[in-house]
TrEMBL record:
Protein name listed in UniProt: Fe2OG dioxygenase domain-containing protein
Domain Fe2OG dioxygenase: 203-318
Keywords: Iron, Metal-binding, Oxidoreductase
Domain of life: Eukaryota
GO molecular function, one term: oxidoreductase activity
Pfam families per the UniProt record, alphabetical: 2OG-FeII_Oxy (PF03171), DIOX_N (PF14226)
InterPro entries to which the protein is assigned, alphabetical: DIOX_N (IPR026992), IPNS-like_FE2OG_OXY (IPR044861), IPNS-like_sf (IPR027443), Iron_ascorbate_oxido_reductase (IPR050231), Oxoglu/Fe-dep_dioxygenase_dom (IPR005123)
Family: Belongs to the iron/ascorbate-dependent oxidoreductase family.
Organism: Cyclocybe aegerita
């Protein structure tokens, strides 16, 4: 259920005209903070349309927004972060028994270095990148729990009390927010508010818990090394919940420079994925982003240690049976042929993991 307000225990940030503040060289690149209460609780169709237009405008320009007053309670977010942290503190042998096995499932535990996110689709190139500069993170992937063929990999209740139910509840909460944001996009594209409803109602999403352990700075000195390499996301939208540490950077599509997406209290970072960009004929922008290490604490004359970081990403997808083809009002000539959602997502995942 959507209720209350979010408080993700993040540091307050400085605002100027309700935009995240960047350096002067990035003055033309802004990630706006959008008050979603003006859409959810709109007193008129005009007010709802104004907010929808704000969202679509931002997704056309930067592909990213900060969403405030989105309706997810602070208690729910904090308890989900807590259960996530408890899971990653489990012994390696316990987590390894839950290992991710198949891109068609996309469920289970992914140990440090197993995934290498990149824009490449070449398995050999990705393998070389993974060998040279693996992503320094571990994740837990959770999908729909009622699938008959693909099952979530849950730790035993005695090992991780309350973990399963907390994640199942959060999955539903994030799906509901996804529906509302997609309705705002539909309205902003003049498609009719409920255009996407029957194309996203099967909840074919991925809840990803992420843990970035402390890392010695010497391990981050390889060329191309990052906590998570530059990439775009696969689906419609990504809902990102950050802790206070930060590290997310977004590429300015006009200059190629990466700029920080600093955690902002009471907001969720939301970005357009590749399938939504394709669906919209690139009217909406899927933007490259990465996670870099924050400033390190010096532990010797030649070595530093970065702080641990936690985040939660909810990767929203269309129904896996849905055909993604050029939307109305998004150009007269389609740039891409129609594609099946499930085939596309599985194909991207298959080359990302070992």
């Amino acid at each position: 259920m959507l209720h209350g307000r979010l408080s993700v225990f993040v540091r307050p940030a400085v605002f100027k005209r309700q935009f995240a503040s960047f350096s002067p060289t990035n003055a033309s690149f802004n990630i706006p903070v959008i008050n979603f209460a003006k859409y959810r609780l709109a007193s008129s169709a005009e007010e709802k349309k104004r907010t929808a237009d704000e969202i679509v405008s931002a997704f056309k320009e930067s592909g990213f927004i900060y969403l405030s007053n989105h309706g997810i309670s602070s208690h729910e977010v904090k308890s989900t972060f807590q259960k996530s942290a408890e899971f990653f503190k489990l012994p390696s042998e316990t987590k390894d028994k839950l290992a991710w096995e198949d891109p068609r499932s996309n469920r289970g535990y992914v140990a440090i270095g197993r995934e290498r996110v990149t824009q490449s689709a070449d398995p050999k190139e990705i393998a070389a990148l993974r060998e040279k500069a693996p992503d320094f993170k571990e994740t837990m992937e959770i999908g729909r729990d009622w699938d008959s063929e693909w099952k979530n990999q849950w730790p035993a209740e005695t090992v991780a009390p309350g973990f399963k139910q907390r994640m199942l509840d959060f999955y539903e909460t994030c799906h509901e927010l996804h529906v509302h944001v997609m309705r705002s996009i539909a309205l902003g594209l003049d498609l009719g508010e409920h255009f996407f409803d029957n194309k996203i109602d099967e909840k074919c999403h991925n809840l990803r818990l992420l843990s970035y352990p402390p890392v010695k700075t010497n391990l981050l000195k390889n060329e191309g090394q990052a906590r998570a390499g530059a990439h775009s996301d696969y689906g419609t939208l990504t809902l990102l919940f950050q802790d206070t540490v930060g590290g997310l950077e977004v590429q300015n599509p006009h200059t190629g420079e990466f700029v920080p997406a600093t955690p902002i209290e009471d907001t969720i970072v939301i970005n357009v994925g590749d399938l939504l960009a394709r669906w919209s004929n690139d009217v909406l922008r899927s933007t490259l982003h990465r996670v870099v290490a924050p400033p390190a604490e010096k532990i010797s004359e030649s070595e530093g240690l970065t702080p641990a970081r936690q985040s939660i990403a909810f990767f929203c997808n269309p129904n896996f049976s849905a055909e993604v083809a050029c939307l109305p009002n998004c150009g007269d000539v389609a740039k891409y042929p129609p594609i099946n959602t499930g085939d596309y997502i599985v194909g991207r995942l298959a080359v990302t993991y070992t």
